[in-house]
Specification:
The complex is a heterodimer of chains A (about 170) and B (about 250). With about 170 residues, chain A is mostly helical. In chain A, about 75% of the residues lie in helices and about 0% in strands. In chain A, α1 packs antiparallel against α2 (about 25-45), α4 (about 55-70) packs across α9 (about 130-140) and α8 crosses α10 (about 140-160). By secondary structure, chain B is of the alpha+beta class. The longest helix of chain B has 22 residues, at about 20-40. The relative contact order of chain B is 0.13. Classes of the chains: A mainly alpha (about 170), B alpha+beta (about 250).
């Protein structure tokens, strides 16, 4: 394996994992997404290495892999659900603390968004991409990103309730 | 707490991901081997119906505005006329003519071939073969079968063309295939068994269209498992019956 790729992958895989987890809300699936993304990057490594923004390339590959697998997810009838994560979290966390509740509440709220708008929100507000970069990553128009993000934020405010009135768009 | 911080909270307790490199390398090697094997049968064919049209990357010949068919360069017009002839030979509805239309304005390296399906004086459908790329990105070929109101792609299809479904298959950076509904991909594959586009000799994508191909025929034509699934999905979506063509044959997914 190319040493440059190995270094790149080792440096980025944790961040990709976190983003993947926000996208799908499940650890096992997030790991699969990262793996698929890295395989895609390795396959095109010559181009990725020479690209102006390899990180952007990796993010794009990740979200597109996520979106491409969503149909498959439906067929699998959501075998792994957040309920599993909730149970696991409760199992591992001795005290049912507010941080755990908060984490699960956020993940559940994100899952209420359709996959593509969810990916937009995560790229915009987690990865801090610009509207232009988000549109490029998802292959859609900037207007689409703006309108979808606006609707998604409104929905998130509703879902997250009054305790998150400090929700601020960056 | 802003949204970035909220999402940071959501991933704060996430355990560290085990190093994926070993597994990634194994998968990559396995797929490379599979791809190499499949390319023996796939070659550089663009399969249209039961006909085979071989093309290569047109942007490799931008200076002369020529595309390559097999090993011998031909003009765009010759390519388009050959494609129209093959489409016509395999068109499932008698009385309809496949006609190459003038190429619309394209980018510096995009090549778009538009065909209309006519019945008498009425245009009943259309099809595009798109080889898309730009000077700032790695070009990739995209072959698209579209409903009539997407003929002005991408202007029409970037709007929500509700209910319209079309198939696009691309190789290159992402090696993906999609079945779209409007602007929304509803089905896609990330591993088509076709090679990445890396140069003049790279294989072109395959697209199987037509109203009555059987699974066995598709296998005979060298269509990959992924393409067979796409074909089945397109058939289910009614795409293969667009433009008033024959009833679809729902090909069983492999």
């Amino acid at each position: 394996m190319d040493e440059d790729f190995a270094a790149f992958a080792r440096e980025r895989q944790q961040q990709l994992y976190r983003t993947a987890y926000l996208l799908c809300g499940n650890r096992d699936r997030a790991q699969d997404l990262v793996q698929s993304t890295l395989v895609a990057l390795l396959r095109s490594w010559n181009r990725v290495r020479d690209a102006d923004n390899p990180d952007g390339y990796a993010r794009t590959a990740l979200v597109r892999t996520f979106l491409s697998e969503r149909r498959k997810l439906r067929r699998e009838a959501e075998i792994h659900t957040l309920a599993n994560d909730r149970a696991a979290a409760h199992h591992h966390v001795a005290a049912h603390d507010s941080a755990t509740d908060l984490r699960l509440t956020i993940l559940q709220a994100l899952r209420q968004l359709p996959p593509k708008p969810r990916a937009m929100v995560i790229l915009r507000y987690w990865e801090d991409l610009t509207i232009e970069q988000t549109a490029a990553a998802l292959g859609c128009s900037e207007g689409n990103v703006k309108s979808q993000c606006s609707r998604s934020l409104e929905k998130l405010r509703t879902l997250l309730g009054e305790q998150f009135t400090e929700l601020v768009v960056r | 707490m802003d949204l970035h911080e909220l999402m940071g909270t959501a991933v704060a307790d996430l355990p560290e991901l085990p190093d994926q490199l070993g597994q990634v390398e194994r998968i990559h090697h396995r797929r490379t081997a599979t791809k190499r094997a499949s390319l023996i049968s796939v070659g550089t064919a663009l399969v249209l119906g039961v006909g085979t049209l071989t093309i290569a990357s047109p942007w490799a010949h931008q200076a002369t505005n020529r595309v390559a068919a097999g090993s011998a360069p031909i003009t765009r017009q010759q390519f388009a006329e050959d494609a129209a002839r093959i489409l016509q030979q395999n068109w499932p509805v008698s009385g309809q003519q496949v006609v190459w239309k003038a190429t619309p304005a394209t980018g510096p390296s995009s090549q778009i071939f538009i065909f209309e399906v006519e019945q008498g004086t009425k245009v009943v459908g259309g099809m595009q073969l798109i080889f898309y790329g730009s000077g700032s990105t790695t070009p990739y070929p995209m072959t698209t079968l579209e409903p009539l109101d997407c003929l002005n792609w991408p202007q029409m299809c970037t709007a929500d063309a509700a209910g319209d479904r079309y198939v696009s298959i691309s190789t290159g950076d992402d090696a993906m295939a999609f079945v779209y509904s409007g602007n929304d991909p509803i089905y896609s594959l990330t591993d088509l068994g076709v090679a990445d586009l890396k140069g003049v000799n790279a294989p072109s994508p395959q697209l199987v269209v037509g109203g009555s191909l059987t699974r066995a025929q598709m296998q005979h034509l060298g269509a990959s498992d992924g393409l067979r699934e796409i074909y089945a999905e397109a058939a289910r979506a009614g795409q293969l019956t667009g433009s008033g063509k024959a009833a679809p044959t729902d090909v069983e997914s492999s």
